[in-house]
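User: structure tokens for this one?
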Amino acid sequence: MPRNTSINSVLIIGSGPIVIGQACEFDYSGSQAALSLKEEGISVSIINSNPATIMTDNVVADHVYLLPLTCESIEQILQERQIDAVLPTMGGQTALNLCIEASNRGIWDKYNVQVIGVDVAAIEKTENREEFRQLMVDIGVGVATSKIANSFLEGKEAAQIIGFPLVIRPSYTLAGTGGGFVHKKEDFDAALNRGLHASPTHEVLVEQAVLGWKEFELELLRDTNDNVIIICTIENFDPMGIHTGDSITVAPGMTLSDKCYQDMRNQAIKMMRSIGNFAGGCNVQFSVNPENEEIIAIEINPRVSRSSALASKATGYPIAKIAAKLAIGYNLDELQNQITKNTSAYFEPTLDYVIVKVPRFNFDKFKGANKELGLQMKAVGEVMAIGRTFIEALQKAAQSLETGRAGLGADGRQSRNLEEIMHSLEHPSADRLFHIKDAFELGVPLESIRKATLIDKWFLVQIQELVQLEGELRRYQLNNIPRDFFMTLKQKGYSDVQIAWLLGNTTEDEVYARRKELGIQRVYKMVDTCAAEFPAHTPYYYSTFEDENESVSSDRKKIIVLGSGPNRIGQGIEFDYSCVHGLLAAKECGYEAIMVNCNPETVSTDFNMADKLYFEPVFWEHVREIIELEKPVGVIVQLGGQTALKMAEKLEEIGVKIIGTNFSNMDLAEDRGSFSDLLKDLDIPYPKYGVATSAEEAIQVANEVGYPVLVRPSYVLGGQGMSIVINDEDLEKAVVNLLKNLPGNHILIDHFLDRAEEAESDSICDGEDVHIIGMMEHIEPAGIHSGDSSAVLPPFSLSENVQNKMEEYTVKLAKALNVRGLLNIQFAIKDENVYVIEANPRASRTVPFIAKAYDVPYINIATKVMLGENKLSDFTIERKLKGYAIKEPVFSFSKFPEVDKQLGPEMKSTGEAIRFIDDLNDPHFRELYNKKSMFLNAQ
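Assistant:
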């Protein structure tokens, strides 16, 4: 059926601020859906309160509403604009819940708006635990024994019937919020209360716990003609009991028998067809008994999900793009396969490679948190790796995590504490994958590890083989490793760093040089969705060690943009926003724009965003070989956060041009001590400081500068390791802890300006002129990390004198640091004196906020300046903000109820929202202003 011509305008509901369980995968899906609808000549409006996303950029939609996700906001849009249909399936649980609420209030009927992509009845069937259970029974799909409970008494009765262990699943919640396993009767009452309170409908499912069963996910698409295809089968490395967002996952399924897969496939199609009027993407989760392959359904999500983003990147099949077209009436066989360009979208991808996703945790930001994984998601991000084998992809994923690991072990960071290791195997946390390898190295039998983890034996055998390979490698020296064995090591995913460590007395560079002598180097394979059965036209590559290289370097002038890796607190979606705009600007300037990143949730890793995408770890060895192949004019490190910046020195060492501010000036700003010396030379006020390399030196410095002091390491992001201390004893503990976690780092001891105000400036410099894009005033005082503080643009209470000084110091520093591109400066203000705290000559989390508030193409301008294609004088920069914009941090403390929620110099927020106000009499602003007054006047 051709598209529904009555739909000429569509409203897409976004997912709001980033929180644990709902991250930038919905920026990817919403952006892709909007662009897909615009291709059809449809006017697209978007509502989302998240300023850090590409989705809320005017390059994506025709009309962007940066409003709170409420029915009142929806009605405001419908009054202002003629909307024919609403698409709620691209914004996660938040969008679905808002769609239901608007439907219950009669808003869609009042304004004659169709709900497309799913209907409200289907949402109710899948989100209401009892309706879903009954539907599965009716269609003959197995489910765990369960009872619904709307009260404490009903829950107690259900537990008595089902027996322990059991699981509590609240209805209508995100990422398992409020759910959990109950192993003992005495723990049940508290868990039941928690679940009932978490559910907006005060409803929970009390269910038989199938702990230790295997878990699988299927990503499906369905059209209005009831055609259904399976896009991807994803197997969880971790067994049932761990939220899928916290599980290591693998595609395609590695341990499924064909009979079980066909049965699961048939059940998934039956489930999707049973939930009503539905055209679009869907995620189905199953559990499989490893003893007899009995299958039970866990849940079905009639929307794109975190797994949809992963499946899209795993297969190259643009799920959100096709789902959007299905929602407006097209059938699958009427749409073009975006990869082959000559077959239809009615096909199921075939993978001749293996995908591994590993979650990224940030427990270091939540001191005292319960790190054991369960039904409530705790990961803040994830990485995806592609290899020819499972073990190659797994090692590449470990290299991608940004946790300092060089692969799966063999890097000097192994644990040798058997008791700690065995506890970790039985009580999974972020390190369990690495502890499995550690256990094998200590001689723990495979069967003991299997019983402790309940992980399928096939996966464990793959990891065990690494230990055997490492034992064999230790028999050699670098100059006599047989070429075939060297090749085997690289095909198993070993980095040069790991090989050097295993050999001892050898460096990474020496290993690199030796394998080049032997002719062992990476080749690049195309992600083509159909295992080369049809020619593919998408420039989307991964590396491996074989003979044929499918990535042919063109003779065009090229720019490589290094991405930001996995999302984590302190380095989030705002850096992906910057990278995407950097790519677009480079393409506009005539460069071939090449992206390197490993985050499957992001827009930057969409197959059609860059001219060429390398889905690879942002890890030195991988980046180096891509540069050798492509020979770019230069590399942009300024947009990808600390991940990319860490490459700058090595790039300079091998003679690769860094586009924008050079390494020495970036390093000067990052090195806290050297930067303070620069401020002194420029006669710019700064807090008294000193640099220490030991606790003894730190105490001496602190007594010279005066308590309280701010203790912080150089070269960190998100306030990692920062603390405010008031005496020698606390200082000694802080410094010892820092040097333990960041050995060799210089510790900066600043006098802390108590009850000072904090502000920021963001600017662009072309080497001659400096343009301040925006200045923000914080609500919280100095001492609260800027990412955790509400900020108002433009300043509302800073005097003209203070603002003039901020501008003066910004210009001075931009020129002294020889900035080419972006510069963010943080200030402390006390008694009309302006002090500079730090300067960041790179993209920062404030960039998208200012860009959206002022409607200025901030990164686009900065990138063209970095490339030397334009001077600032070539641009007319107009600020379109009327009134004020407020940036408000959003936290995910509900995932860690046991942690200290007090804010300080180390960042804890997971996302942010934007709010616009007309004037300073706005009630919301007055509340914030009163809070600021309270902070500053506190005794």
